[in-house]
Amino acid sequence: MINVILLGPPGAGKGTQARRLSDDRGLVQLSTGDMLREAKTSGTELGNRVAEVMARGELVTDDIVIGLIAEKLEDATAAGFIFDGFPRTLAQADALGALLDRLGQTLDAVIEMRVDDAALVERITGRFTCGNCGEVYHDRTKPTKVAGVCDVCGSTDLRRRADDTEEALKTRLMEYYKKTSPLIGYYHAKGNLRSVDGLAPVEDVARAIAEVLDKR
Length: 216
Ligand code: AP5
Known about the structure:
The protein is built from nine helices and eight strands. With 216 residues, it is of the alpha/beta class. The strands form two sheets. It has a five-stranded parallel beta sheet, with helices on both faces. Strands 6-5-7 form a three-stranded antiparallel beta sheet. Helix 2 (32-41) crosses helix 3 (45-56). The radius of gyration is 17 Å and the shape is globular. The mean pLDDT is 95. BIS(adenosine)-5'-pentaphosphate binds next to helix 1, helix 2, helix 3, strand 6 and helix 9. BIS(adenosine)-5'-pentaphosphate binds at residues 8, 10-16, 31-33, 36, 53-54, 57-60, 65, 85-86, 88, 92, 123, 126-127, 136-138, 141-142, 163, 172, 201-202, 205.
């Protein structure tokens, strides 16, 4: 069992690397962003409640996301979890620690993906994803091989997120610096923080993350 947090601002590449880790090591990707978007698409009461908050780029409340994660952690068959976009506040980090303790599990690594803000605008405004299998693309750096068709599953349901605008990104970055970046010091103090260069090509970032996990 191995539990890993991918920590970084919007567009750092957390989702891209989480999917790879999930394929390569059989870990379960827990993306609170994906869970909330699913709730929105299926029109649940929770989805309706968080839709506007997410579109503005603000964080949803701690109790909602902690509840979503708590449910998933009960999956005893998982080889381990990759936390993608969670925790995002100190309260969420404390709650995750308590949940893992209760289940007799440990947090094995917190990987900070270092990037600079200038690169994020380009990454975020060029991103689109497959609505069927979740593969992540980019207009310039990772287009589909056939326009409008997912390389992985052949679906034509390619989507852009409502919060992937320059305007919402400003708020998302501000939320990150105010509420999430303090987690870097928090996990550093706990001794499990490692950093990788998130500006490197996808393959190199994946290699750097693999090295961190293999050296544990
Ligand atoms: P969430 O879905 O978690 O979004 P985010 O953290 O803003 O992160 P992103 O998904 O935008 O980016 P990413 O780092 O995964 O990058 P990606 O791999 O896609 O959260 C959305 C919203 O939900 C929040 O704003 C909030 O409202 C709510 N929420 C979620 N979790 C919450 C929580 N815990 N508490 C409270 N609220 C919460 O890559 C981006 C692009 O770059 C892609 O096009 C990709 O192809 C490209 N790319 C990736 N890596 C590279 C590379 N190395 N080189 C070049 N291009 C690359």
